[in-house]
Specification:
The structure holds two protein chains of two kinds. By secondary structure, chain A is mostly helical. In chain A, 56% of the residues lie in helices and 3% in strands. Classes of the chains: A mainly alpha, B mainly beta. At the A-B interface, β1 of A face β4 and α2 of B.
């Protein structure tokens, strides 16, 4: 399998924290749903910001996640 | 726009607020002014009135804190989360918290966050608004440095807050806009609570007339800035844009805020580096880079970043020569040459404009490159210059591009 670079790990960490804070993302225990759940939350965030909805953690999506912002969630459970 | 679940709102029109502490980054009076002006934005479009308390429990308690500060949402150090606020309700409801680890400022520069803008956003939450996905709306979740002079509440935010509270009792005589928080005005320090609402505003202000767009074929028409953009030509004057496109025959009429909501009206200069799909706008001592509608992050920046001496406070015009890959900046009767590859000014500049561009013996409002020629705009005239042969070809009216 391709080795996940340190930077990719950091980016993934940042993304999960962002989605937990603002998109009500909860890390699934069951690995079957893990990836799917994360991809859905990424899609939800991409749709909010008018990005191309891919479900993947691409540079544009990460760029938005790194912008200074308000601490209130964008969506609420 | 959005509201919180079940749309909590204040069930009264008189809402109280209290500033519990201050950031050391700003003068206390500047903090008070930023908060008061932020509240005024909301009171000017609703029946709400805000009264400041100095002791006891107010509906909206405003404080600065870093890291963990007694609620479940600790702050995260510099950057990232700047602030948060709670929807209307008892106790912590309505309260607004600002991250003291940020650098707070009353300006809209690049090295700090403008407290007025962030407070206006957070107080929107304190009144019951959630986030908006409309780029440029005040309730958009991401911080965008904007020109706060003459700041006007975007329509999406007005729609949202009026969905909760309705319009003001009587329509404000003046357009809904905040005063420049930087304008120092004496804040009364009287013990009595101060009220902030448009009805208290001095009535001697005359309604500001929004300037109307000049006619396309007005022979006296002048421009602030002109640039190409992906094969089109954009002509700027005040908040207006004339858009000339090879893709449609008529001249399209727009406003700057319809393309780039956060950008202030009235550019000084603009130019495109086509191979980077990048347009750069200049206003006073700052510049922004955009790609299409998207403003690149990290802007505005000071023009000194490009290599201008501090004696240059603003520039008159700019143009990128797509052939030589050099960008020329025009200031007064001089010009600089900037190397886009090395991102630095070329040696031997500034030089006199008249020395290198025959027939251009005056200041320049705007410059455009088309078909290998430069068009220098000065007042209601433009001067077509053949760069290669350094010859002045002809003089035309500035709006000759509008098929007059």
């Amino acid at each position: 399998f391709p080795v996940v670079s340190e930077k990719e790990k950091e980016d993934m960490q940042l993304a999960k924290k962002y989605l937990q804070s603002f998109y009500d993302f909860k890390e699934e225990k069951n690995s079957l749903f893990k990836t799917k759940n994360l991809a859905n939350k990424i899609r939800e965030m991409q749709s909010f910001f008018g990005l191309e909805v891919t479900g993947e953690l691409n540079p544009e999506t990460l760029d938005i996640m790194k912008q200074p912002r308000c601490g209130i969630p964008d969506v609420r459970s | 726009y959005s509201t919180f679940p079940l749309s909590p709102r204040w069930k009264k029109e008189d809402v109280t607020y209290r500033i519990l502490n201050y950031t050391p980054d700003m003068l206390q009076s500047d903090v008070e002014e930023a908060i008061a002006k932020a509240l005024q934005l909301w009171s000017s479009v609703t029946p709400l009135r805000f009264t400041r308390l100095y002791t006891g429990q107010a509906d909206i308690m405003i404080s600065f804190a870093a890291g963990y500060h007694g609620d479940f949402y600790s702050f995260d150090g510099p950057g990232g989360t700047l602030a948060h606020a709670y929807p209307p309700g008892n106790g912590i409801g309505g309260d607004a918290h600002f991250d003291e680890d940020e650098n707070w400022t009353k300006f809209t520069t690049y090295n700090g966050y403008n407290l007025f803008l962030v407070a206006a956003h957070e107080l929107g939450h304190s009144l019951g608004l959630g986030h908006s996905d409309v780029f440029g709306a005040l309730m958009y979740p991401i911080y965008m440095a904007k020109d706060t002079r003459d700041y006007r509440l975007p329509q999406d935010d007005i729609d949202g807050i009026q969905a909760l509270y309705g319009p003001p009792r009587e329509s404000p005589a003046l357009p809904t806009k905040a005063f420049a928080p930087q304008e120092p005005t004496e804040m009364t320090s009287a013990e009595a609570p101060t009220e902030v609402s448009p009805r208290e505003e001095p009535t001697e202000m005359t309604p500001s007339k929004t300037p109307t767009r000049p006619e396309d074929c007005d022979p006296h028409l002048t421009f602030d800035a002109i640039t190409t953009l992906r094969g089109e030509i954009l002509f700027f004057k005040g908040s207006y844009v004339w858009r000339k496109s090879p893709y449609f025959s008529d001249i399209e009429h727009d406003t700057i805020s319809s393309f780039w909501p956060p950008l202030a009206a009235g550019f000084d200069a603009a130019y495109e580096v086509d191979r980077k799909d990048r347009v750069v706008f200049f206003k006073d001592g700052q510049y922004w880079a955009v790609s299409g509608y998207r403003i690149e992050p990290g802007f505005p920046k000071p023009i000194q970043n490009l290599g201008f001496p501090t004696s240059v406070g603003k520039i008159d015009a700019a143009v990128h020569d797509q052939i030589t890959k050099k960008t020329y900046f025009f200031v007064g009767n001089k010009y600089w040459s900037f190397n886009e590859n090395t991102q630095s000014m070329e040696r031997g500049y500034p030089r006199k404009i008249a020395a290198d561009f025959q027939g251009i013996g005056h200041t320049v409002d705007a410059v455009l490159q088309k078909n290998g020629h430069f068009y220098f705009f000065h007042g209601s005239n433009q001067y077509e210059v053949d760069i290669k042969n350094k010859k002045l070809i002809r003089i035309m009216k500035s709006n000759s591009w509008f098929n007059c």
